[in-house]
From TrEMBL:
InterPro entries: BRCT_dom, BRCT_dom_sf, LIG4
Single Gene Ontology MF annotation: ATP binding
Taxonomy, superkingdom: Eukaryota
Name by which UniProt lists this protein: LIG4
Pfam families from the UniProt entry: BRCT, BRCT_2
Entry keyword NAD: no
CDD domains: BRCT_MDC1_rpt1
Organism: Saccharomyces kudriavzevii (Yeast)
PANTHER family per UniProt: DNA LIGASE 4 (PTHR45997:SF1)
Length: 228
């Protein structure tokens, strides 16, 4: 509304030209599911944010398609290249860097596959996350897969626990989890000795937080994925 748009609360009443309407959602609520079943195209809120950022109405591309018709998706896919770079819309240096980085990460993993639907989720899903993953000498594949998912959706990986705002324990095996938690506790103790204060500790979650966030297309509550 602030930037010239108009909110409507009942698209089914059809008191407007449907060609001028954009349905915005990033979660499959009951209302959203009803509209999808009726054949409406649902666009991700990132489209609105990018329109504001670029100060113009930008074309719908795959990353903005939350739930759209096959016809619209075909049109959207023709507007980007194999890396997801736009032929028609402007792109920031940061988004372009993320595109290249995500593809490099995918090619380096090799045997690890990515669900085709996951590739259309906006790349900045985890853009506000700096993630620390405690490491063990074994389990390299699990760590690589977790890192790939986080980076693919805009997150950052750090090797320093003190710099992160989220800690993910990557293992299912209880002994490995225990080793990782002990490592984190030791690092916290070292921080306390160095600063003589109680440091702010990031939330510790299980890998399920990442997968559920990707599936829900939003960051789900961390407290729902404790490490036990």
């Amino acid at each position: 509304v602030k930037h010239g748009g108009k909110l409507i609360h009942n698209v089914i009443l059809k008191r407007h030209c449907i060609g001028d309407v954009r349905l915005i959602s990033c979660k499959t609520t009951i209302e959203c599911r009803i509209l999808i079943d009726r054949g409406y195209d649902i666009v991700h809120p990132s489209w609105v944010m990018d329109c504001i950022a670029y100060k113009q109405l930008i074309f719908i591309e795959p990353s903005y398609c939350f739930s759209v018709s096959h016809k619209l998706r075909e049109v959207a896919e023709k507007r980007v290249d194999c890396l997801g770079d736009s032929f028609e819309n402007n792109i920031s240096e940061r988004k372009l860097s993320l595109l290249f980085k995500s593809r490099q990460d995918l090619s380096s993993i090799g045997e690890i596959g990515i669900d085709s639907e996951a590739q259309v989720i906006p790349l900045f899903l985890f853009s506000n996350r700096i993630v620390y993953i405690p490491r063990t000498k074994t389990g390299l594949r699990e760590e690589k897969l977790l890192e790939m998912k986080i980076r693919l959706f805009g997150g950052e990986i750090t090797g320093q626990q003190s710099l992160c705002n989220l800690i993910i324990i990557p293992y299912v095996d209880s002994s490995r989890r225990k080793d990782c938690i002990e490592k984190v506790n030791e690092q916290i103790k070292e921080q306390m000795k160095a600063s003589h204060t109680v440091p702010k500790v990031a939330r510790i979650v299980s890998p399920g937080w990442v997968d559920h966030s990707i599936n829900e297309n939003c960051q789900v509550p961390e407290e729902d994925f404790p490490v036990v």
